[in-house]
Design a protein that fits this description.
The structure holds 2 protein chains of 2 kinds. Chain A is mostly helical. Chain A is 47% helix and 11% strand. In chain A, the strands form 2 sheets. Chain A has a two-stranded parallel sheet. In chain A, strands 2-3 form a two-stranded parallel ribbon. The longest helix of chain A has 15 residues, at 41-55. By secondary structure, chain B is α+β, with helices and mostly antiparallel strands. Chain B contains 8 helices and 5 strands; from the N terminus they run ααααααββαβαββ. Chain B has helices at residues 28-41, 48-56, 60-65, 68-82, 88-93, 112-118, 172-175, 193-197, and strands at 137-140, 159-169, 184-192, 206-212, 216-218. The two termini of chain B are 24 Å apart. Classes of the chains: A mainly alpha, B alpha+beta.
Chain lengths: 226, 219
């Protein structure tokens, strides 16, 4: 119990971490400083690490390509949008989704890493749901893909629980006092997906057209489907 | 551990800044690192709780100034050295030590999609006593472990209502320090926002937190 955090760290930070603060700039998409020029120190370190691990036979280079392709092209918020659109047009599916989300989501072919234990929470005229992970950045990958930077950021993680209405206002969503804002802090391995309210005037739309109206932000709960 | 990663309820961190048309990865190294972390994880030298704890050990000032993937990089290197997958000298040189054994990667390209689709469920089919039940009033314990916990500070000592028993799940506090899975019931607990934050919170608002049996006591 006397072990300090410094002792627990093996010291790898000194080699792993480059310029503190650099990542922040990158995260905000403000990275025009190194696009054409010299690769960043971190980029070089990752490259060196990857080649070391491949040379030692610890990782398979082709496997890395498949992982990246899956998360860049197959696993993303379009998956979740299909789930939501199905729930909007099919009351029996909606019921299954709310009672056994894993099974209902698997019906559309989505499952797995960081979505092993799914729960879907439904927005109504009286309840608005909002999902956060205050301790790290837990997020339902199979249906939403990898989280956006703002979801992983200190401002969102800190304020979503204490000032959800302020956060929603910054996203342009002002909710009346009588609506219950229900914040879900993903502290365990349960992953939450918001079922937004179906927008008015969409009665005639096909399931596919409805899916196009479902945004990632609506499924996190920082926006409405419009 | 009462670290800076436990951010719920902190103020003055600045505005939330969404980025329009955000790419999945902002730099290629982020994509490569993400994939490396998944691939090295297939060695099963550690578990998700260990890797979360490792990132929590990053000193606070550095934690706050690092990007998400910079934290992943720091945590990965620390864990690979701790578990003897690589040595510090190998990390520094980028080359295997002379005479280092050649391994065979457990995650090959043909296995990736199945591994992703399967995931790593955290529930366990073992008997465990449920000390609480839906509808019951509970209080989150006032506890301050110096190691990993998933009981956020803002909920400690606060009273709420169990709304659902999710079943038996791996307990992160022990799993994160290689002291076993210690599976126990996990509950969804509802706290009123006013219980957590006082009168400044909106009257009807609530915060739902997933809490293990050992985090709770009867209210």
């Amino acid at each position: 119990m006397t072990t300090t955090r410094r002792e627990l760290l093996t010291g790898a930070l000194t080699t792993a971490v480059v310029t503190p603060g650099m990542g922040r700039t990158e995260e905000r998409g403000d990275h025009d400083h190194d696009h054409q020029g010299v690769p960043s120190d971190t980029a070089l370190r990752v490259k060196s690490l990857e080649s070391l691990l491949i040379e030692k036979g610890l990782v398979d280079a082709a496997a890395l390509d498949v992982v990246i392709d899956a998360y860049e092209h197959k696993i993303g918020p379009r998956n979740g949008a299909r789930v939501i659109a199905r729930a909007w047009v099919d009351p029996a599916y909606r019921q299954r989704l709310l009672t056994d989300a894993n099974a209902a989501i698997a019906e559309l072919g989505y499952s797995g890493a960081q979505g092993e234990h799914m729960v879907v929470v439904e927005n109504t005229a009286r309840v608005h749901n909002l999902v956060v992970c205050t301790l790290c950045s837990c997020y339902p990958w199979p249906v939403l893909g990898l989280p956006p930077v703002w979801y992983k950021s200190a401002p969102y993680r800190s304020r979503a629980v204490i000032d959800p209405r302020g956060v929603l206002r910054e996203f342009g969503l002002e909710l009346p006092e009588e609506v219950e804002v229900r914040v879900w802090d993903s502290t365990a391995e349960i992953r939450y997906l918001v079922l937004p309210e179906r927008p008015n005037g969409t009665e005639g739309l096909s399931e596919q057209a409805l899916a196009a109206r479902v945004t990632r932000d609506a499924m996190i709960g920082v926006a409405r489907a419009t | 551990m009462n670290g800076v990663h436990d951010m719920g309820g902190m103020q003055d961190m600045g505005p939330v800044e969404p980025e329009k048309n955000e790419p999945v990865f902002h730099e290629r190294w982020e994509a490569r690192l993400f994939a490396v972390v998944r691939a090295v994880g297939a060695w099963r030298k550690w578990n998700i709780d260990v890797s979360r704890f490792q990132r929590e050990l990053i000193p606070p000032a550095e934690y706050l100034s690092m990007s998400y993937y910079e934290r992943w990089l720091a945590g990965l290197i620390d864990l690979m050295i701790k578990t003897n997958l690589v040595t510090r000298a190998e990390i520094d040189s980028g080359k295997p030590a002379p005479g280092a054994p050649q391994s065979v990667p457990p995650l090959t390209a043909d296995k990736v999609l199945a591994a992703i689709a399967r995931g790593a469920p955290a529930n366990r089919d073992v008997p465990a006593v449920a000390h609480f039940a839906a509808g019951q009033q509970v209080r989150a314990r006032n506890m301050n472990p110096v190691t990993h916990t998933r009981l956020p500070r803002y909920a400690r000592g606060k009273s709420g209502t169990v709304v659902r028993d999710y079943g038996v799940f791996v307990f992160p506090d022990t799993n994160a320090v290689f002291r076993g899975e210690n599976p126990q019931h996990l509950y969804s607990v509802r706290f009123s926002a006013r219980e957590l934050w006082g009168d400044q919170a909106a009257r009807h608002d609530t915060v739902y937190v997933d809490l293990w049996d050992a985090y709770l006591e009867p209210a």
